[in-house]
# Entry
Amino acid sequence: MKPRLLLFALLALLPLAACASPTNPTEGDDYDVIAGGQPFAPLTGGQKVEVVEVFGYVCIHCAHFEPQFEAWQKKQPASVRVTTVPAAFGGFWIPYAKAYYAAQNMGVLKQSHAAVFTALHDTHELPIQNASDQEIAGFYARFGPDPDKFAATMESPQVAAQLDKARAFGMASGITGTPTLVVNGKYRIKVANPDDVLKVADFLIKRELAAAK
# Structure
């Protein structure tokens, strides 16, 4: 693994700072403004705010955060689009980032997303390191895809392009750890406590919705 990617991978496994003021978040303490930041994808229709969760299946913090984040996501109005983006730090992060996009492209992401966290961190059906495409594809077969087709999709040009986009967004947004939330491409939330992360996200969403009026 290249030194830069190794550093990213190590940082991604470390918890971030505690929230300084969850009821009144402040720039520099609870979130950073991303210079020249852009949303991951253009907003459409009635969407006014994009919230991106940069995550990794191999990240234990992401596994712990997932149930709370999913419950929070379901409460968001139609004006808020929540998008998950796999971190492409390199090394053992990459096979599962490919699997995320392969599952998305094959229509089984929704039913498989939480199960991958469980298989990696609870039941250990999947290895965190040195996972082959065929091994991962065999796990996803329980959700319907043919293993050979799933493995081929992981190595497809479409997934490669999606992975490049995820990597570019992560680098442009200054992502050095997971899970990290980015609001409208402008704000990178710094705090680690799940309750505080979501309080800061709510604060920034309200700000962006008010600005959009």
